[in-house]
Design goal:
The complex is a heterodimer of chains A (about 400) and B (about 325). By secondary structure, chain A is an all-alpha fold. Chain A is about 70% helix and about 0% strand. In chain A, a hairpin with a 4-residue loop joins strand 1 and strand 2. The longest helix of chain A is centred in the N-terminal third of the chain and has 35 residues. Helices cover about 75% and strands about 0% of the residues of chain B. Chain B has about 325 residues and is mainly α. The longest helix of chain B is centred in the N-terminal third of the chain and has 31 residues. Classes of the chains: A mainly alpha (about 400), B mainly alpha (about 325). At the A-B interface, helix 7, helix 8 and helix 15 of A face helix 6 and helix 13 of B.
Chain lengths: ~400, ~325
């Protein structure tokens, strides 16, 4: 972080970081009103497995568990809601093997894949957002704004146009191909943004601005490809521009499960360096963190997570931005807690999808709902922050 | 101040003139049905010889729309950058165009009309509300010149408005079919009828911009110095806001929301004629017109003969590249 470029929105995270170096130290007075101190309570307990150390505060643990329950509830609602109503009891008895044949068909063939993909997409995006927001110490640096999501989207569309496969999200013909190319697209976009922002180190503002530019370029390229592809189904095209869970199948789920199974534990091993990194690059280097290598790993991880989520559902906007911020405020931590962020993301996507399906008469892409929920929150965050700057 | 006959100025003027002529000719001649320049000229002089009325029927209106919209957006961007001191200001990027298009789509949805004049009025209201909103959000911080809050506020406002637009268009596919193409931004849609309607407000906006030039010159020096020079800041802001609203709304009403012209034109203009707004505003208008026509021609050519690529898409790609270049070049400390 170059001191000079650090301004406005970044300062918030900066003060928080210096005020609260890590969860192992007692939480002192924290710079923001939204993060009141936790009082004099001894801060951490935890488990230490050597590679994965999970220090926790009870509040964080409680919030994480609460979010888990919320996800479970949202998941149940996600299965229960739809044109043929069913009760919560029906849902779970069917899931556990009971239920009539009709119910079994509805649940396992129609609703369960969609609900699982919603949860998976939310988990991936929430985690990816938490990682990018933490490493850049800036709440605005999310996969959406850094261009990773649109890179993955462009990659998926390239795969469709060049591969000549089905246009709809998660078409089984390219079940493996689309996720792979989307991940590559996300990684390339991340590399491009990072490389273009490099000037004797990476300033997080330049990173964000370059990301905005690259998002425009990639969005244009995606539209261009869709125009060239002579798309007959316009709705399928909007899916890649907005993000939707319409028409997902079990085939969309498996790549995400694999990626989550590998990267969630890996992200947790990065927890300690992420924590130390809040002190600033110079400090972390002094404390023995290989800053650049750690940062590359974190960016790559979040690019893969965002990429696989996009390949399943298209770019579902603002989840990666909102979920970590909500988790952070709920848990009252200095940086977004990883697992809780992922869970909040899952609940957000699932509930938005229910709203998108049920609330408007016709089915709306879930990305529109998340954008309508998320953008005002971003605007609010900016105004609140600016007012604080002014004082 | 340099005399108007300064050789460098003459060169610049000649350069812009040649570029404009080339862009106009290309826009008249090239497309899915290429016509030779000689044929174009002949058709212009003698409408009867026009092959299938391509030139007068579709290319001339399109070119005129491109010229006016490009000039409007170039000027709107210049005023926004001058007023805020923010090198990344652009009506498309900062959500003003999205506001105008949301108002148009919303009007079509609620009133079920399809008249250009109502669309224009709605676009003006939307552009005004969106610019007040974006600048309001951003001006809560101490200086508008810090590009990041404004850029992100603009991105967020755009994202929100675009989500609402897609929501309306997708849920009312039958009634709003026409707007699905329009929201991407294209020059082909409205033709001469739309052009004649927006001509008056667009020209009014351009004149208002020139009225604002003196204030823009002093605002560039910072608020305190501007006040010291006898500038009434609120009046300067109000005139600027009026000019931005008129030009952007006219452009959006006829061509849909087009981004990045307003971002790049002032930068090119500044490189050509310097920072004096009396010269910069006309130069940006010319650069904007040339750029928009060129991008439109590119969109027609890369479509591969079947479907043309909307100019909004071409602008997003090329403008994004320009945006990245500007961000990389500008020193962040200075921004």
């Amino acid at each position: 972080m170059t001191g000079q470029g650090e301004a406005a929105l970044d300062r918030e995270q900066g003060t928080r970081a210096t005020a609260e170096p890590g969860e192992r130290t007692p939480a002192g007075p924290v710079g923001t009103a939204a993060l009141p101190s936790t009082g004099g309570r001894p801060p951490t307990s935890g488990i230490d497995l050597g590679v994965i150390a999970l220090p926790w505060r009870w509040r964080v643990l409680a919030v994480t568990l609460g979010c888990g329950v919320l996800v479970l509830a949202a998941f149940t609602v996600g299965i229960a809601a739809g044109s043929s109503r069913m009760g919560v009891l029906d849902v779970w008895s069917t899931l556990l093997g009971g239920g009539t044949q009709t119910l079994q068909f509805i649940v396992f063939e129609l609703r369960l894949p969609r609900a699982c993909v919603a949860v998976g997409v939310g988990l991936c995006l929430g985690l990816a957002g938490a990682l990018t927001q933490t490493f850049s110490r800036n709440p605005l640096a999310t996969p959406d704004i850094l261009g990773v999501t649109s890179g993955a989207s462009a990659g998926a569309v390239v795969a469709i146009v060049l591969g000549g496969g089905g246009y709809s999200v998660g078409a089984s013909l390219l079940g493996v191909g689309i996720p792979a190319v989307a991940i590559i697209g996300g990684l390339l976009a991340a590399a491009a943004v990072y490389g273009l922002s490099w000037r004797q180190g990476v300033d997080s503002f330049r990173l964000i601005l370059i990301g905005i530019g690259l998002t425009a370029i990639l969005g244009g390229l995606t539209s261009f490809l869709l125009v060239r592809a002579q798309l007959t189904q316009v709705t399928a095209a909007t899916q890649w521009m907005v993000g939707s869970l319409n028409g997902v199948s079990w085939a969309s789920l498996w790549p995400m499960v694999v990626v989550l199974a590998v990267l969630l534990p890996f992200a947790l091993t990065q927890s300690a360096p992420l924590e130390i990194n809040q002190l600033g690059d110079d400090f972390s280097t002094g404390l023995g963190v290989a800053v650049q290598r750690h940062r590359m790993l974190v960016i790559a991880t979040s690019a893969v997570l965002a990429g696989v989520a996009v390949s399943a559902a298209g770019p579902v906007e603002f989840v990666a931005f909102v979920a970590p911020q909500v988790a952070c405020r709920l848990a009252r931590t200095a940086r977004p807690p990883l697992i809780a962020s992922a869970l909040v993301g899952a609940a957000l996507v699932q509930l938005s999808d229910v709203a998108a399906r049920v609330a408007f008469g016709t089915e709306v892409p879930v990305g529109i709902v998340t954008a309508i929920v998320g953008a005002p929150y971003l605007i609010w965050l900016i105004t609140r922050h600016n007012r604080k700057e002014r004082r | 101040m340099f005399a108007a006959t300064h050789p460098a100025r003459l060169n610049t003027l000649a350069l812009l003139g040649v570029a404009l002529l080339a862009a106009v000719l290309a826009s008249l001649a090239l497309g899915s049905n290429p016509i030779s320049v000689a044929q174009v000229l002949q058709a212009l002089l003698d409408p009867a010889s026009d092959p299938d009325a391509v030139v007068w029927g579709s290319r001339v209106p399109r070119t005129l729309v491109g010229l006016l919209v490009g000039a409007c957006l170039g000027v709107a961007g210049t005023i926004m950058q001058g007023q805020t001191g923010n090198p990344l200001a652009d009506p498309g990027l900062f959500g003003v165009s999205s506001g105008a298009s949301l108002a148009v789509v919303l009007g079509a949805y609620l009133l079920g009309h399809d008249s250009m004049s109502v669309s224009l009025l709605l676009a003006m209201a939307g552009a005004l509300v969106a610019s007040v909103l974006v600048f309001g959000v951003a001006s809560l911080s101490r200086d508008l010149a810090n590009p990041v809050p404004l850029a992100i506020a603009g991105t967020a406002v755009s994202a929100l408005l675009n989500a609402v637009i897609s929501f309306l268009v997708l849920t009312n596919a039958s009634s709003l079919e026409a707007y699905r193409v329009w929201v991407v931004g294209s020059l082909g849609g409205r033709g001469l009828e739309g052009l004649s309607l927006v001509l008056v407000p667009a020209l009014a906006g351009l004149v208002l911009a020139l009225v604002n030039a003196r204030s823009l010159n002093s605002l560039t020096l910072g608020l305190d110095l501007a006040r010291g020079l006898g500038e009434t800041v609120w009046r300067a802001r109000l005139v600027g806001l009026g000019a931005i609203t008129l030009t952007t709304a006219s452009a959006v009403a006829v061509a849909g929301p087009l981004g990045f012209i307003g971002l790049t034109a002032p930068h090119v203009g500044r490189a050509l004629v310097g920072g004096n707004h009396y010269r910069l505003l006309p130069a940006s208008a010319l650069v904007g017109a040339v750029t928009l026509l060129a991008c439109d021609v590119i969109g027609r050519l890369i479509g591969g003969g079947q479907a043309e690529v909307p100019v909004g898409v071409v602008l997003a790609v090329l403008g994004g590249v320009a945006f990245v270049a500007i961000v990389r070049r500008a020193k962040l400390a200075a921004m």
